[in-house]
Design a protein that fits this description.
This protein has a domain of 89 residues: Helix Hairpins (Orthogonal Bundle), CATH 1.10.287.70. Helices cover 80% and strands 0% of the residues. The chain contains 3 helices and no strands.
Amino acid sequence: MKWQHRTRFITRRGLIYSLLLCLVILGLGGVGFWILEPSAITLSDGLWLAFTTAATVGYGDIVPSTHASRAFSVLVVLLGLAVLSLVTASVAAMFVETEERQIERDLMHEISALRTEVRSLHDELRELKAPRPHSGRD
């Protein structure tokens, strides 16, 4: 049971770390676009451009226009895809873990029922093997 708690904690912690990494990459991407891209006038414009670039949405309202911001956008896309994949994998692992716990509970219930049945069969076998007193009707 202790390893189940540890596994659940690691999975949740992995999701938290992935989300934090995602926020850091978007934050740094936003600052980077704010510095490199002339059309990103405010930090919020830079953050928006970082988000749309990392998520590969590209609405087109703000686009990288300089060579430096285009090269930076390639880096943001690659990092964004990698981190978003980690987040997706962490969420999927949590769903799989929940399903595994249910399967394990079902198996433990079946094993308990089988043990009870085996005990009952042992008792019946013991009764059948027990010597019987003669009734004198031979």
